[in-house]
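Running low. Invent one:
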Amino acid sequence: MKFTHDVIVIGGGAAGLTAAGGCALFGLDVALIEARKMGGECLNDGCVPSKALLAAAKRAAEARERTRYGVTLAKPVVEWAGVHRHIHDAIAAIAPHDSEERFEQIGCEVIRDWAQVTGPQSVEVAWRTLTAPRIVIATGSEPALPPVEGLDEVPYLTNENLFDLEDLPDHLVIVGGGAIGMEMAQAFRRLGSEITVIEPGRLLARDDPESVAVIREVLEDEGVRFVNDKAERVESRGGAIRLFAGGETIEGSHLLLATGRKARCTGFGLEEIGVKMGVNGIAVDARRRTSVKGIYAIGDCRDGPRLTHVSGYEGSNVALEITLGIPTKVDWSALPWCTYTDPEVAQIGLTEKDARRKYGDTIRIVKEAFRDNERALAEGKDKGHLKLVLKGKKVLGASMVGKDAGELLLPFAQAITGKSSTFALGSAIIAYPTRSEISKAAAFSAWEPTVFGAIPKKWAQLVARLRRRFA
């Protein structure tokens, strides 16, 4: 069979761009298909705009403290039009990295239209039939809407239209206490909105409960209200949103649904050619191969973790496998994630709960508080802690809550994957004063009983006696 391309990639988000760009840089003939905005969810209505909004909110919060460190600031004046402009300026600044022009320069043929997979090696797009021995599906995800009565009859926000708001909400009611819900709750509260978060289960359910307790207390102190109940019914009355949760009625100006994501994998002809589906997305093996030979699925469209850095990781893996023929399996043992509240909640590897479920009482917990870190004390930002989950002296996971916690995950990724060790980290020379000293302190704690144990003590005492005798 004569092919038009070496590989066809459907989807121009983090996963698809990484896979397509990688294959093109190796000299393959690549077709990259994207019907919506280049850059996908992360650039246009996810990571980038949300972090830009959080930056504006943080500035308002700092000014609202007024007097700190002996310096008095003016009361903040929030101009929503300026915040909106900052958000979209951030998107525009990053967009060239993900643009059609850039990927054409790399060597991809970029086609801006909807694709239909018609066979294991064929795709219909823009009135053309493309063929390739390998097809990569990277069609992303979309907001998962909760089963709330009356939802179809009221206006609501998701991350896909939240950042286009022309006015700051008076009272933002948020359904969902995951990462998006918590970040947006703090951001809009700091900018001046009244906030109610409705979550029937645990806030940030996949994170360590001790870490979550710290950020919940911070948000409550800032004025965020939490309702631990299920959103049952919603209605619009007089321009306001009325939401019924348990026995309570919450009235707000805007409703944000932040109840997770679902795979965008229907309507592309995949099931018709035999691609099997999982619980929430395309079923894949550890190499991201689908049930149809030659077709891969990566990023949010497949069943599995949905994080931008995971999409990039999978895109790189698949690019290597397609270009060099090297089988590349995913490894989630050091999977990191971070919720960018202030303070941040960060996790890598196993939480204490997951580790105990897997290893029982053989694990050990080491905990270091930021109140013992001198950089944190000097800055007056000492709320939070680091919790290391150890089996012997090996790191299984790290749970952290504190200022810039996500920035401190890297050494634990190295330790979990065996590229470093607690001994190496605990004996490293680290710049003073920095927050990363908390990582060194926790790692050294794994070795402290050994270093200062009975045998080393006896040896030290023997050396001391000999020195006194023969010096």
Residues 47-64 form the longest helix (18 residues).
